[in-house]
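#struct-pred
JK: can someone run the complex with flavin mononucleotide? inputs below
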Amino acid sequence: MAPTIPLLTPYKMGNFNLSHRVVLAPLTRNRSYGNVPQPHAILYYSQRATEGGLLITEATGVSDTAQGYPETPGIWTKEQVEAWKPIVNAVHEKGGLFFCQIWHVGRVSNNGFQPNGEAPISSTDKGVTPGLDGGDWSPPRRLTTDEIPALVNDFRLAARNAIDAGFDGVEIHGANGYIIDQFLKDQVNDRTDQYGGTLENRCRLALEIVEAVANEIGRDKVGIRLSIFANYLECGDSDPEALGLYMAKALNKYKILYLHVIEPRMVQVGNIFETPYSTLPMRKAFNGTFISAGGYKKDDGNKAVADGNADLIAFGRLFLANPDLPKRFELDVELNKYNRATFYIQDPVVDILIIRFLRGDDDV
Ligand SMILES: Cc1cc2nc3c(=O)[nH]c(=O)nc-3n(C[C@H](O)[C@H](O)[C@H](O)COP(=O)(O)O)c2cc1C
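RT: done, structure tokens with the ligand placed:
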């Protein structure tokens, strides 16, 4: 008998019956022209769908102030909701489960992405260093206390729209230096109102969004992604272990479906560093499904599941380059290598040879 592959064992996530534990991580692709998802995404997502497999969309804006990168999708207008429908249907036709990652970039933006050229909004008026990660970041405007309910409401409405578009649930993007992270982390959040200072105060926005979204669509359809240990886009914390544990415990109150955590080794996007930190205390503290992501290959993914350190493993770059990733794990065949040059380009069908030629590779 073939040995069991832990990543390919079934798992019951709330009301959802997953046939395996290989999740598509959220991956921004910058191909949703005018913030509207395009028909080519039908092929992209359905290629990665499997019977009983969980897919998470690329980060999807909750409002007209939520963008900071070119051509990322949104879910705040009727047109966007309609455009998502055939994409969701195609994933469902293949038996996949599909969650929409709902997102607000906060200060990771510039005036050009904002309505009327206004300043991006954040917990703070401290900006990201212009030029960092290649972005032309503008100085942000600190939200006043009485503006925060409207931001929470944008997440609530986006979640409602996601359900209307047919998604099975939403993942609240609380990671990677975007607006929720800008409230969570003490190296960015310098507020003196009830949304800043103590751990309880810094976590308040995240938890208000969780509560509003759970009340709107049902707690059994809500997950949240956190990157407690990372400092992407200058969004770090002086005591990530305490922050992670506080959030994991606080989330239990809302009984949401899952907590999706980026491993501490992903200190920077794309680079692995060993750190003294572990997600295990968060895993143990949180009562729902625990998804782990960040730098996984088949072997350490299997080990994390077998050891009980995670219920599900999200794969980003490997799933991007290998649409049939679960099948390749099953057959134990070689994986395609990912190509960074194609990650964020706006053309969905670019010949890889052209890219390599333009880059000046010798072997074209
Ligand atoms: C092209 C690309 C786009 C990404 N977009 C998102 C995103 O929209 N939302 C998000 O939470 N993380 C995003 N990430 C992070 C991935 O979800 C994942 O955490 C990261 O790639 C590490 O996992 P991996 O080693 O399996 O690729 C992105 C990463 C890449 C490479």
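RT: quick notes.
Residues 25-28, 58-59, 101, 173, 175-176, 225, 262, 266, 293-296, 315-318, 343 surround flavin mononucleotide (CB under 6 Å).
The chain has one domain: 6-331.
JK: thanks, will look after standup
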